[in-house]
Amino acid sequence: MTQPTTEPVVDADTSLSVRLREETAEVHDAAERSAFVTALLGGALDLREYARFVVQLRAVYEALEDEVAASTDVALAPLFAPELVRLPALTRDLEHLAGPGWAAELEVLPASAAYADRIRFVARTEREMLLAHHYVRYLGDLSGGQLIGRVLRRVYELPDTRGTEVYEFDAIASAKAFKDRYRLLLDTLPWDAVVRTRLVDEARVAYGLNTDVFTELLATIPLRS
Questions:
Q1: Domain boundaries of the chain, sorted by first residue
Q2: For the stretch 84-104, what's the b/e string if a residue is b when 16 or more beta carbons lie within 10 angstroms of its beta carbon?
């Protein structure tokens, strides 16, 4: 697993939402700049490679949404909004991209399985840390994910949102308003400094796990004859 490379300097007066943004910036940027993402969004890969990527996403979201559904933490409940759920959209995307037999044809890679395992592990051993993975995935989807969906439709000549439904949040009227409220809820969580620092650390781990998935996807692209 890719590890964070720097130790953040903590200001006790900095809000949790600001800390999450600033102290994960390096690992966040590394994931976004990965060679696989560059190739995918640049049209250097074929539609099959996009479908392989979606399978990895589905494995991660399945773990995340299973654990969110099982959570009994009342402090986290307002953040775990049902309109964020992505698993049905991912399944429809795969059916469109690879047909009804996608599960037998497209492999979940070890890096993706490790990512999913990490989510399940922290949810069951240190339940507050589930929020770190929730934040990394959904706030990304509501931010850069919107642009990614548009680029993918253009690059792969998809006539509508089928194949990129994961990036469509029809139940959320305003992504900005939703993100603003999410960050406000983050900042009012009743957690001490130790738990907040652990959350930031776990978010950095999550970005590293994303990078591991991208690295393995690129390394396992089948040779075309």
A1: 16-219
A2: bbbeebbbebbebbbeeebee
Looking at 1.20.910.10, 1.10.3720.10, 3.90.226.10, 3.40.50.720, the CATH number of the domain 16-219 comes to 1.20.910.10
Non-local CB neighbours of 18 within 8 Å, separated by 6+ positions: none
Q: What is the pLDDT of residue 200?
A: 98
Encoding tokens for residue 96? Answer: 């469109």
**pLDDT, tens digit, 9 for 90 and up, residues 139-148:** 999 998 888 9
DSSP category for residue 84: G
Residues near 81 by Cβ (< 8 Å), separated by ≥ 6? Answer: 178
Residue 117, CA distances (Å) to 61, 113, 120, 189 in order: 11, 6, 5, 26
> Given a cut of 70, is residue 62 above it in pLDDT?
yes
Residue 52, classed as helix, strand or coil, is helix
What integer pLDDT is reported at residue 5 of this predicted model? 44
Average pLDDT, the chain: 93
Question: Is 0.90 surpassed by the pTM of this model?
Answer: yes
Residues with Cβ within 8 Å of 72's Cβ and at least 6 positions away in sequence, in order, are none
Distance CA 156, CA 202 (A): 34
Cα–Cα distance measured from residue 97 to residue 197, given in angstroms and rounded to the nearest whole number: 40
